[in-house]
C-alpha cells in the first residue's frame, strides 16, 4: 500500500506563505486521487483540497479558495500544497491522503505536518 510522508510545515506570520510536500512510496501517486486535510485543536479533521490523476479535476474548500493550490508531480511521486496569505485560522495539523476514487474518503493517510500561523 502507498505510504505518505508530509513535510514543510512550520511557524509563519499571518499573510505569509508555506509549501507543504507529500512524498509517496510503495506505489505511484498516479494510481490515486490525492488530497490534503487538516485538523485544528479541538476540532474534527476537515477537507482542504483534492486533485485527480492528471490535476485536471480539483476540489477546494471555500475557506481556502484563492489562497491554497494543490499540485502533483507524478514523476517525483510527490504532491504539494502551496499556501499563500495564511491566516491564524489556518493553524492545524495538515494531512496528505490518497484515494482510489476521486471524491471518496481516502484509504491512506500520512502522519501530518504542523502549520502554525501567528497573528
Structure description:
The protein is built from no helices and eleven strands. The protein has strands at residues 3-7, 10-13, 18-25, 33-39, 46-51, 58-60, 68-73, 78-83, 92-99, 108-109, 113-118. The strands form two sheets. Strands 2, 4, 5, 6, 9, 10 and 11 form a seven-stranded mixed sheet that branches. The model has no long low-confidence stretch (mean pLDDT 95).
What are the salient characteristics of this protein?
four-stranded antiparallel sheet; 119 residues; seven-stranded mixed sheet
| Annotation field: number of helices | 0
How large is the radius of gyration? Answer: 13 Å
Overall outline = globular
Main sheet?
7 strands, mixed
Oligomeric nature of the chains: single chain
H and E order: EEEEEEEEEEE
First-residue to last-residue Cα separation: 40 Å
- What do the pLDDT scores average to? 95
- Tell me the β content: over 45%
Helix content: under 10%
Structural class, from secondary structure content? mainly beta
How many strand elements?
Answer: 11
Describe the structure concisely.
By secondary structure, the chain is mainly beta. 0% of the residues lie in helices and 51% in strands.
Could you give the topology of this structure?
Blueprint (H helix, E strand, L loop, with lengths): L2 E5 L2 E4 L4 E8 L7 E7 L6 E6 L6 E3 L7 E6 L4 E6 L8 E8 L8 E2 L3 E6 L1
Parallel strand pairs: 2-11
Antiparallel strand pairs: 1-3, 3-8, 4-5, 4-9, 5-6, 7-8, 9-10, 9-11
Amino acid at each position: 500500500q502507498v505510504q505518505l510522508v508530509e513535510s514543510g510545515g512550520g511557524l509563519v506570520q499571518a499573510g505569509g506563505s508555506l509549501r507543504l510536500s507529500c512524498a509517496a512510496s510503495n506505489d505511484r501517486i498516479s494510481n490515486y486521487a490525492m488530497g490534503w486535510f487538516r485538523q485544528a485543536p479541538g476540532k474534527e479533521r476537515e477537507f482542504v483540497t483534492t486533485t485527480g490523476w492528471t490535476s485536471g479535476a480539483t476540489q477546494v474548500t471555500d475557506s481556502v479558495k484563492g489562497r491554497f493550490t494543490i499540485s502533483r508531480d507524478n514523476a517525483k511521486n510527490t504532491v504539494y500544497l502551496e499556501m499563500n496569505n495564511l491566516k491564524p485560522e489556518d493553524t492545524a495539523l495538515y494531512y496528505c491522503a490518497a484515494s482510489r476514487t476521486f471524491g471518496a474518503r481516502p484509504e491512506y493517510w500520512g502522519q501530518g505536518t504542523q502549520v502554525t500561523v501567528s497573528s
